[in-house]
Design goal:
With 218 residues, the chain is mainly β. It has strands at 5-6, 10-16, 29-33, 45-50, 57-70, 77-89, 96-99, 104-106, 113-114, 117-120, 127-130, 135-143, 156-165, 168-180, 204-206, 212-217. It has a single domain, classed as Immunoglobulin-like, CATH 2.60.40. Strands 3, 7, 8, 9, 11, 13 and 14 form a 7-stranded antiparallel sheet that branches. A 6-stranded antiparallel sheet has the order 4-5-6-12-10-15, with no helix packed on it. Strands 1-2-16 form a 3-stranded antiparallel sheet, with no helix packed on it. It is globular and about 50 Å long.
Amino acid sequence: MKIKYHYLHSIITTLAISFSFACATSNDYRYVPVTSPTADRHRGEENYKEPPGKVTGNVRVLSLGMVEIKKKDDPETFRAIHIRMVISVLSNSPMWSFEASEQQISFPNEIASQAIIINSDANSLPHMEIRPKELKTIDLYFRLPVSETSEKTLPAFDFHWQLHAGSVLVRESTSFERIATPRHYLREVYPYEPYPYDVGWGPYWWPAPRPLIRVRVR
């Protein structure tokens, strides 16, 4: 895949793998969580301490915006929403687990759908185990309906996620809404080796193999 992100100051120009992505984010809008009063709108993320009543871990959920995806040797491009989950398990707690098929997104007037591409710092996708004292980051890409062509036509969406905290099922929904993006909120992309932060946190991709990445920062 190759993924291309567009920013006022930064562009990821190429990300090549067995099928290719071109990802673009708008300079005008971003999506922030509105699920609860504790949502951090400045950082654009929601923080959860789970399970309620007997906390054994923490989950951060945020959106990194809209991207364009293009399969290699296929002229078609389509758009997707990029969601990031950061999961940490406390010491002396049961192991947690993640299943790709249990994560869904709901767009207005559309049936909930699963991620089409997932990236992580764990090589066991689409399943993942998070042990005590571990922290794992997961990037999920959800295809947009054909009627949604840009941030201007997508005012909000809901991310429905669940994890297994030992024998306890943790199930939540994080609602995001579109807000105007002042210039100082725009993210810049830096070429951290062996992959840039905004493309995907880790080197492992599902269902694709690890991509080869070229980054140009301007």
